[in-house]
Amino acid sequence: MKLKRPLINHCRTSIFKKAFRTGTSAAVLLAVSLSLLTGCGGKAPDDTVTADGKVQVTFWYSGGKTAAGVMEDIIEDFNQSQSEYTVIGVQQADYDETYTKLQAGIAGKNAADIALLDSDKTRNLAKKELLAPLDQYIEQDSSFNKEDLIPVFYRQCLGDDGILYAMPAYGTTQVMYYNRDLFEKAGIQPDTIKTWEDLAKVSALIQQNTGANGWEPMWGEDNLIDMALSNGGAMISDDGRTVLINTEPWVETWEAARRWIHEDKNMSIHYGGQGWEYWYDTMDDVLQDKAGGYTGSSGDQADLDFTKVGAMEQPGFGDNPSAPVARVLQMVMVETGKDKTKDGAYQFMKYFADASQQARWSMATGYIPVRETTLDIPEYQSYTAENPHALVPLSQAMHASPDPIDPTGGKIFDALAIAADKVEIENVPAADALKEAAETAQAALDVINQK
Question: Which domains does the chain possess?
Answer without folding.
Answer: 12-172+327-402 (3.40.190.10), 173-326+405-450 (3.40.190.10)
